[in-house]
# Entry
Amino acid sequence: MTALPPEEIWRGRPVPPPDAWPAARALDRSPVCRQSDFETGWFAWWTASLGERLRYHRKLWEFAVIAQALHERGLLRMGARGLGFGVGHEPLPAYFAARGCRITATDLHAEAAAGVGWIETAQHAAGLDPLQRPDLCPPDVLIDRVAFRPADMTAIPPDLGGFDFCWSACALEHLGSLAAGLDFIEASLATLRPGGVAVHTTEFNLSSDEHTVDHQGTVLFRARDLRELADRLTAAGHHVAPLDLTPGGGPVDRYLDLPPYRAEPHLKLALERFYTTSVAIVVTRGS
# Structure
């Protein structure tokens, strides 16, 4: 990892290409966050569609990757049913509703969220108000197409089922342990109809496939954890988009952001004594 790249490499960049459009097969894999994705037409298209500014930030990558993965599988369509976990103040429920989807948005019960600081840092939703994005979806349309309910990701309510897709954006690493996060991904598949798709993003340990952070407020998943999960889900009859865990070699990829973290560039960062970035896991439920 290197020092901050020269500003001309990242400030005001990447520049959106003139042919920005969602790709047909950009997410037939489960990738890690890389600089090269930010410089594609599909990424620029999703950034604009979600009302965001194009910049090198991994949270933007998570939103764009979730939307792209669902789009190319034909799930962002009128009447499709989607379930969001730990939605906080994300733009995704509003955007999906604007595309005609019927969304159930969930987040931790308010009392539990206050106990871990999510409310104080504006990362928690307790109703539809934090999900309103008039620039993406008219308020009356959002109220009609989005329902909110509290839900614990470690104990998904059994009546949540039959959805066409579900997603979470960097929430499952806060469930208390590696095992709890992996169990959540598997449990989330039970909320889907056969052929439904789950897209989850989380923390990926770039430093070690042996040592990591576990049993803390934020845990870091290793390559071996994800491979074992993929094997487990495949054995259960599901399809996991192949893992693509190469970290990328661009100058922004090589920059390690240190606390207090920058607004940009922010793709790879130091957490505890490890380097980490975001990874997306894309799973299609089997029959």
In short: DSSP finds nine helices and eleven strands in the chain.
